[in-house]
Design a protein that fits this description.
Structural class: alpha+beta
CATH class of the largest domain: Alpha Beta
Shape: elongated
Radius of gyration: 30 Å
Helix content: 25-40%
Number of helices: 21
Strand content: 15-25%
Distance between the termini: 80 Å
CATH architecture of the largest domain: 3-Layer(aba) Sandwich
Number of strands: 20
CATH superfamily of the largest domain: DD-peptidase/beta-lactamase superfamily
Largest sheet: 6 strands, mixed
Number of domains: 2
Length: 587
């Protein structure tokens, strides 16, 4: 065999020099909140790289001393690198400190085949918003095979916005080619740098989150399990997304990420679980609003329709209880007083309209009208791992109860959100936006702007209309307003705020594993609403006890910028409440 040298540009490396190909990793794009407050930035770190073929005898003890590792670990790391490739560079030790890096560079001539490479790690200055921002981790072998961009040792967005906007944030890698002598010293750029490629930094993104509101929501949810979602109804922009318990996202950045992830993953409170988008809860009494709107749309109820309530709804031996309130009630009062019996009547009238022969058609009509509020399906926001909730269709009950063996009484618990229906906090907040807007919503989203991009995706700027006529929203909104601002007997007076017209609805979802979940949805102000919220506090009891005051504090904080001194007692009560340990001691 004869090897012919076509180009003599490699002659230097063939004699006393070798080439070192150094990947230039781009600075990952920064993340700012809606008010341009920095939420994620980069901090430089250094990886020690190895090319096994270029390694020759070196002082192992000295290298281990500099990098603070044991000889056994060094031997294992070299073995791993050889198994990967004897010719290609790979990471020997990740993310060494500035001090260790400086010592290594000073003595690098003693360690042929080793060199340092600059990287960055993500830093989260607010030390919150972990579920929202997500984290960055090393690519898997499968990911390197699926996408050519990634090589072993690269980093990728694993969750949250880091994952959702990975292609925007990551930038484009560059390459520098150096000539290195036998003593591991750089002699200069190969071919005067003509073979180099500059790295292109990732694009910065501005998100819709209000960092101050987000931090306040996380404070309110400390020592509680549940979620907060706040959205601007007119735009669909998500103002806050809190999942509790939370954690400091910096725990999943840097060399300790693996061990910290293990600790969080083993925590019985499941802090890694994003309850705002993935927890599927019964909507409880908040769902009465949807049945009221569908009843109005189909003409089975009007604002003057009244039903009695004798501490509940009874048909034969079937009984569904209700709390004490005056009776009978009309539509607006049925919402402000949250009457169970009223909505059992309304729901069954919807399904039984025109007789049994039309029951299945009526059910699917109800199903489709409910779906039009974004319930029972993924909304399609710019975020990974959203779950769809559940609004059962006829086939669901055919499987569960039996084909043509179920009637409206079998499923009457759906009237009050206690049946098979499941919703996420995100869906409930979006539903509240549709009510606040009197019939439409914009898909909730986190992106507000991307560097060098004029507009965001059109789907996050498009109004999506429900199948309820706008005229029917006024009495329902009046009922929600009276629930907060009415006289005694209404269910959410604790959410009242001076000078802000809050419209809300409480919910209490039964929980087979303990106390009910506390739920509240609300928007404010009544005209031209600026914020809609959905709050879930697990195992906390009535919606008026915990979720309603949390929602009112979130609303006041966002609209006024602070909580009035007259309500400091309420704020302190929420901030100091420890519902996790209370639950633990009562079971």
């Amino acid at each position: 065999m004869v090897l012919q040298t076509i180009d003599n540009q490699y002659q230097d490396s063939a004699s006393s020099n070798v080439l070192r190909f150094v990947t230039q990793y781009p600075a990952r794009g920064l993340i700012y909140d809606r008010n341009n407050k920095l939420m994620v930035y980069n901090e430089p770190v250094y990886d020690i790289m190895i090319v096994p073929r270029q390694v020759s005898a070196f002082d192992t003890a000295d290298l281990c001393s500099i990098l603070r590792i044991t000889p056994v670990k060094a031997k294992n790391l070299i073995g791993s690198a050889k198994r990967y490739s004897r010719f290609k560079p790979s990471i020997f030790l990740k993310q060494v400190s500035n001090i260790d890096y400086a010592k290594f560079v000073e003595k690098s001539f003693k360690f042929p085949g080793f060199y340092a490479q600059t990287r960055t790690v993500r830093k989260y200055p607010q030390q919150n918003s972990a579920h929202l921002l997500g984290y960055v981790g090393e690519v898997t072998e499968r990911q390197t095979k699926e996408e050519e961009y990634y090589k072993s040792g690269d980093y990728i967005g694993v969750n949250g916005l880091e994952k959702a906007y990975e292609s925007t944030l990551r930038g484009e890698k560059g390459l520098e080619v150096y000539m290195v002598d036998v003593h591991n010293r750089i002699k200069g750029r190969f071919n005067d740098g003509k073979e180099d490629k500059h790295a292109s930094p990732g694009q910065d993104i501005q998100i819709t989150i209000d960092a101050e509101l987000q931090a306040y929501g996380e404070q309110l949810m400390q020592n509680k399990i549940g979620a907060i979602i706040a959205i601007e109804p007119s735009s669909g922009e998500i103002l806050s997304m809190v999942s509790a318990p939370g954690f400091d996202p910096n725990l999943l950045s840097g060399r300790e990420r693996g061990s910290n992830y293990g600790l969080l993953n083993r925590d019985t409170l499941k802090p890694l679980f994003n309850r705002a988008l993935q927890a599927q809860y019964p909507p409880g009494s908040t769902f009465k609003i949807i049945n009221a709107l569908i009843g109005l749309q189909l003409g089975v109820v009007n604002i003057n329709t009244a039903y009695p309530c004798y501490s509940g709804y009874q048909v034969g031996r079937f009984f569904l209880g209700c709390h004490y309130h005056k009776s009978p009630l009309k539509l607006i009062e049925s919402i402000s007083n949250s009457c169970n019996a009223y909505y059992c009547h309304v729901y069954r009238n919807i399904l039984d309209k025109d007789g049994l022969a039309y029951f299945r058609n009526n059910y699917m009509l109800w199903h489709n009208l409910t779906n039009s509020f974004g319930l029972g399906k993924k909304l399609g926001l710019d975020f990974p791992f959203e779950l769809p909730g559940l609004v059962p269709d006829t086939s669901y009950y055919d499987r569960k109860i039996g084909n043509k063996r179920w009637v409206s009484l079998n499923i009457v618990s759906n009237a009050i959100g206690q049946g098979e229906i499941l919703t996420t906090p995100l869906q409930m907040a979006n539903m509240t936006c549709a009510i606040a807007n009197k019939g439409y919503y914009i898909i909730p989203h986190f992106v507000k702007g991307i560097e060098n991009q004029e507009k965001i995706d059109i789907k996050y700027r498009t109004q999506r209309f429900t199948k309820i006529e706008p005229i029917h929203f006024d009495p329902v909104i009046e009922g929600m307003f009276m629930a907060v601002n009415g006289e005694s007997g209404t269910t959410a007076r604790i959410a009242r705020i001076n000078d802000i017209e809050v419209c809300g609805k409480t919910g209490t979802a039964e929980n087979p594993h303990g106390k009910p979940h506390s739920i509240f949805i609300a928007f404010a102000p009544r005209e031209n609403p600026k914020i809609a919220v959905a709050i879930y506090v697990e195992n906390a009891g009535y919606g008026s006890t915990w979720s309603a005051p949390i929602a009112s504090l979130i609303i006041e904080k966002y609209i006024n910028g602070s909580v009035d001194k007259s309500r400091t007692w309420l704020e302190n009560r929420i901030l100091n409440a420890d519902l996790i340990n209370v639950q633990a001691t009562t079971h």
